[in-house]
Amino acid sequence: MTDNSLLFRELDNQDLQNFRNDGFCLKSDFVNQSFVDKIRDKAKSVFARQITAQNIELESLEDVHFEKALYALFKKDFHAFIGAAKLCQHTMELHQLAIADDLINNLKVLGLEEPAICVKPIIFFNSRHISKIEGHYKTPGHQDWRSMQGSINSMVVWIPLMDLNRELGTLEIVPGSHRSGLYKSEEDEWFRNIPESEIPESEYVSIDVKKGDALFFSSFLVHRSGNNSSENIRWSMHFRYNDMNESTFIERKFPHPYKVYHPEKGLVTPDFPKRQDLAKVFL
């Protein structure tokens, strides 16, 4: 086994039970840290090309030097920054991880009979120094299903590219919230947030994770990112999957994610799903 192997760990029945009960399961050391570093380094190299092209000093790709240069790029040429940020989502390493057989097999353990990628993999680099709005580095409470709107057993796999602590802003979740269906949400400049009147602040639980850990969670699980109050970038990535064999997804003619057909409620299928629909998945 080489340092560049993906080195997945196999999920088991206890992970499945945790997932059904709480809406998530956390697997430590899920991905080889060397491969995680490879993904992060490739993203840095994409930005480095634009940093150099804009004649910004970049001593090395070490965090202290890279972050200073990246913040300068954001201020000097936002279009160059955005172009690089978008290209980071298309690196071969990121997509290699998204379709790895062992990862797909683990999705099946958690109930996806026939996994299908919902949207391209995403690598995040969150900091207030490279954000136009707060939601770009501190996402409010939300449910991913509102944007995905695919199979009701759809799933997110979230993997940190570095050890995360409270200062960097860990992921915060509401255990068991996946069973309640869609919560009321309010439109904002980021997307839609779940107000505190729906879920009190006290119900959010911080999840401590290290580089290469993997958090599998239902797209109905309420979650948010903690506040990155540090001067550094918080690196992470996530992958979204639907189940092409899920009955309601088939009945609804495989609606395309992120396209809204019902502006009043922001849903492709009005009044869907109901709690009884979710009960069939999370027995």
From TrEMBL:
A Pfam match: PhyH
Gene Ontology molecular function: 2-oxoglutarate-dependent dioxygenase activity; iron ion binding
Entries under InterPro entries matching the protein: Phytyl_CoA_dOase-like
Tree of life domain: Bacteria
Protein name per the record: Phytanoyl-CoA dioxygenase
